[in-house]
Specification:
- It contains 12 helices and 13 strands.
- It is of the alpha/beta class.
- It has a domain of 185 residues: 3-Layer(aba) Sandwich (Rossmann fold), CATH 3.40.50.
- A 7-stranded parallel sheet has the order 3-2-1-4-5-6-11, with helices on both faces. The chain has a two-stranded parallel ribbon with strand order 7-10. Strands 8-13 form a two-stranded parallel sheet.
- It is globular and about 75 Å long.
- The termini are far apart.
- NADP nicotinamide-adenine-dinucleotide phosphate binds next to loops.
- NADP nicotinamide-adenine-dinucleotide phosphate (NAP) binds next to loops.
Length: 339
């Protein structure tokens, strides 16, 4: 099985590459060769240099090559999807498009999500553009037999990156006992998936010809509240997480440029619980096993060995600190108003 990964050294894709190598596939990886440091590729992978933003570099990189399957982690909108169809039609037996579960209907109407849940997210441009990409690929399948399989990860992490608004900065605030802002009251349900679990589902779809024309999400079966997610980090680190609950709507107002503000409003503040029956039917070996307590332990161990890659970001820390101070000031101001 000759498979090409576009991406391949990212948070999710590097575990998928490792799983494909473990399953004795002939694995090729295309990227710019810039970010392998944190997640080195396993032995036996063929590397190709190319830039998906530069169509000419992609044509040159893939000149004359053909694959049993191409897995594209770097297709974000209709333009990217059209470019992939033009580049790869007739040259791959299967094309796996990495989409996102953020596109399931927000506000949430019904859980658990199934693959037929209506795709609609008026809050998040990212999700709207991923819907448009799926539509291009679905049309290419219907009209041109382009052999697409759509995969929608939900919030997926690996040992090198905690799945938290604020990444290692949020983790660090919990560990050192500083208050951490939690949007809302922290009781909505959220699903965190370890990339190694995801990878078993994804690799099982490669060369699975019945999966062509189908869509799948691949997630953990464990749903936790945000309060539990943070409490578990505290317990893992031997401390108690100090959480400060603020209305989610507050974040885009006071921190409009923070990457996570929109994601919280459009995704993380809603409940996300998944029915994984479909992927388990197509890939019986998919049995997500890494619970969040286990994942948090792995993150803690990884950080201990890679301190240089897991430092808090001073700007993010200052922003989170300002939110805490602002809340304390507001509490004091309201107290003064008391009769
Ligand atoms: N993580 C999640 O929670 C989540 C949830 C839903 C969907 N997704 C989807 O998952 C995908 C991201 O996967 P990931 O997390 O594994 O990736 P990632 O962590 O964003 O890593 C990016 C990868 O792509 C390569 N790359 C970046 N820009 C490139 C370019 N212009 N040309 C060629 N290669 C480039 C990088 O290597 P170089 O820098 O060396 O080029 C690296 O291998 C996205 O489609 C995203 O929408 C993720």
């Amino acid at each position: 099985m000759k498979v090409l990964y576009i991406g391949g050294t990212g948070t999710i894709s590097s575990s998928c590459v490792a799983e494909s190598v473990r399953q004795d596939m002939d694995v090729h990886v295309l990227n710019r060769g810039r970010t392998a440091g944190v997640r080195p590729l396993p032995d036996g992978v063929t590397t190709i240099t190319g830039d998906v933003q530069d169509p000419e570099s992609m044509r040159q990189a893939l000149d004359g090559a053909s694959y049993d399957c191409v897995v594209n982690f770097l297709s974000y909108d209709a333009k990217d999807a059209s470019a992939a169809v033009d580049l790869l039609a007739g040259r791959t037996g299967q094309y796996i498009h990495i989409s996102t579960a953020s596109m399931y209907h927000k506000p949430v109407r019904r859980v658990p999500f199934v693959e037929s849940t209506t795709r609609h997210n008026p809050y998040l441009t990212y999700a709207q553009e991923k819907i448009a990409a799926e539509d291009v690929l679905r049309r290419a399948y219907e009209e041109r037999d382009f052999p697409v399989t759509i995969v929608r990860p939900s919030h997926t992490y690996d040992d090198a990156r905690p799945p938290l608004p604020g990444d290692w900065t949020a983790w660090d605030r919990i560990v050192r006992g500083d208050e951490l802002v939690v949007p809302g009251d922290g009781t909505s349900l959220w699903t965190l998936t370890h990339a190694e679990d995801f990878a078993v589902g994804l690799a099982g779809l490669i060369g699975n010809w019945q999966a062509i024309g189908e869509d799948f999400h691949i997630t953990s079966d464990e749903a936790l509240t945000w309060n539990e997610i943070y409490d578990i980090i505290g317990r893992t680190a031997g401390t108690r997480a100090r959480l400060l609950h603020l209305p989610s709507e507050f974040l885009p107002v006071v921190a409009p440029d923070w990457f996570w503000s929109n994601l919280i409003i459009g995704d993380l503040s809603h409940s996300a619980v998944f029915d994984n029956t479909k992927i388990k039917r197509f890939v019986p070996s998919f049995r997500p096993a890494i619970t969040w307590p286990a994942g948090a332990r792995r993150l803690l161990e990884w950080r201990a060995g890679h301190a240089e890659h897991a430092r808090p970001n001073p700007e993010t820390d200052a922003l989170l600190g300002r939110l805490v101070e602002g809340h304390q000031a507001a509490v004091a101001a309201v107290a003064k108003l008391a009769p």
